[in-house]
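Notes from the pairing session

We agreed to fold both candidates in a single pass and log them together. This is the raw record for the first candidate, unedited. Please don't reformat it; downstream parsing expects exactly this layout.

Candidate A
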Amino acid sequence: MLKKLIHHKKILVICISMLCAIAIFLSILFIPKAIKSATKPEGIFVPIIMYHSVCSDTDMLCDYVISPTELENDLKYLKENNYNTIFVKDLINFVHGGGSLPPNPIILTFDDGFYNNLSNALPILEKYDCKATISIVGSYTEKSDQSTDNSQRYSYVTSEQVMQLHNSGIIELGNHSFDMHNLDTRRGAGVMKNESYEEYRNALINDITKNQEYLSENCNIVPAIYTYPYGIVSDPSKRIVKACGFLASLGVEEKPNYISSDPDCLYQLYRYNRPHGTSTEKFMEKALKG
């Protein structure tokens, strides 16, 4: 009787061990997938690349200045891998219910309004039939209007050249502030030390409005996109930018974007800065990873 009891206990232990092993196997097989599914961001993955200056002078190349060859390699890579460039306004139309997005959408942006965006970048964009968003600093363009210098090293587009970019059909324009693109007393569009909310609100609204009016009067363009200078965002600025009528804004954090039906997903859109000296393949591996 004792032997029979011990035998039954051994069988019970073996059965329990087998059940535990099966449970562990099933947890390994299925639970991570469930967790992955539960935490996967909702929406359409839309990577955004941030360019600045495109200059052929090798002594100018740095984290914010790339060569025309590097830009061409990027666009060629995107075409070969079936990516479709879109405007930010296409995201706006999609979110607000009036449009659709193509397969593998991607947005190319250029900040500051360098003259070389017209002289060097635009012909390459046209060659590969790629769209781009260029954000203009009004005070830079105003100064260029008073000059006849067109240097690929340091010049910015004039009002006439802004219209030339717009009339190409593959460029949309954004508001990059009128005169807040600096890191002096005020850092970008940030709040200054000891500045009241009312003072800050008036300063930001006045700057935004001045650039909107300048671009409207001189270029016949009213941007729906606000691009934060240096990507410096504050809680008040988020509310003010929306109150000024912008339907999207661009930041500088290097993260993937997932576009859903929620209009809030259009603000502080993430972007990957394209530096000089990194191969197209290596850069795209980071920027296109959802």
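Candidate B (folded immediately after A)
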Amino acid sequence: MNIGYDAKRAFNNNTGLGNYSRMLISGQCAIAPHAQIVLYTPRVAAQHKAWAATLPNARIITPQFPYSLCPSLWRTAAESLSIKRHDITLFHGLSHELPLFLPHKVKSIVTMHDLIVWRFPHYFSLPDRLIHKAKQRYACNKATAIVAISEQTKQDLVEIMHVDPSRIEVIYQSCDPIFWQPTSAQQVEQTLQKYKLPAQYVVCVGTVEERKNQLSVIQALQHIPTDIALVMVGRSRGKYGKSVEQAIASLPNSRKVVWLTNASFADFPALYRGAIASIYMSHFEGFGIPVLESLCCGTPVLTSNCSSMPEAGGEAALYASPSDPEAIATQLLRIISDTDLQKNLRQKAEAHCRKFAPQKVANDMHQLYCKLLGTTID
């Protein structure tokens, strides 16, 4: 049995789609050790070669001359020639895409993470908008089955792209294995010292961009005690980052905001665990991975009451409108001031996170593979 993957993100993306791809591929290699796993990627970043070495039944395919001169062309079209040559039975596009000219006998799956380019086209340049929409439309029309990472994404596929819901399987994603491991008090203290963080802080993780809505979080700060800092973790994108910088600069000196733009991903669990609460007030997400990361670390979460965030947080989080700074502050104060509430949320998080455990996600995906192929993979 030969299973092919679009592994570009797995080998060239350090977070987000890269983590999703690596976890899914690793999970299937472990579940089906006798299957032949073929990973197609235009290049292999040096930092992910060690991960590839952990996959004994995987083979990496990169473009050869002359396609090495134009890897994007190989990935879009000529990759299908390799898929045919390697006798791939099932091909999985892990991030919104499938190659053109995929052989008809090959069963195909595409994972759709979100339809943000359709909902919020102004976040994208015109060329990117056209390219992303065309690739997503083609992949959804071509795929034998579509994996949506949330009920929200499934709903968008049905309502916006008019996909037959019977073709869609909701299989939640997990978060990186480091968030499922214990973090000692010593590790937390060392991390706080490393980044010179205050003893009491609320953490906000995510790329600083309009959709992630950090400005509303900063506006909510004026309603919480000044001895509690805000620690923002994420790089800025475009003009919105400048607006956030200006908003921080306009705060009184008594209000402390620490913005970490180059924090090591390995330190994220300790940054979460050291916080009183985690806050994530995005306007829209396909899933909202920082919510799950926080819950896995035992950190109480306040997040948006819209899109997929209630799926990611369940009963283990508190919610507020992302457009209402006063409501955000009110809910944040509840977490900060109520130790019984904190304890209750942590207890609920333990049960809630099991829905997203890496092994469960891997098993759910494996069952879909078997269903499409009408056989078992081992």
